[in-house]
TrEMBL record:
<feature type="region of interest" description="Disordered">
    <location>
        <begin position="21"/>
        <end position="60"/>
    </location>
</feature>
<protein>
    <submittedName>
        <fullName>Uncharacterized protein</fullName>
    </submittedName>
</protein>
């Protein structure tokens, strides 16, 4: 019976409610997203300027 129910909701709009529940759980955790963004910018900032500015011809 569980398999039949899972197949039916996939086509219906029931699965949308499940996704909304998961998204709401991640919404209350904004500190994690901000930390990842800062880490990504800091790591992508230093290594980008040196390589292209040092040997732009070699990269080609």
């Amino acid at each position: 019976e569980v398999i039949r129910i899972e197949y039916r909701p996939l086509r219906d709009t029931n699965p949308i409610v499940i996704q909304t529940s998961q998204a709401a759980r991640v919404t209350p955790a904004p500190p994690v997203a901000e930390r990842i963004r800062k880490d990504s910018q800091t790591m992508s900032t230093p290594p980008q300027p040196p390589p292209p500015s040092t040997k732009p011809s070699h990269a080609n």
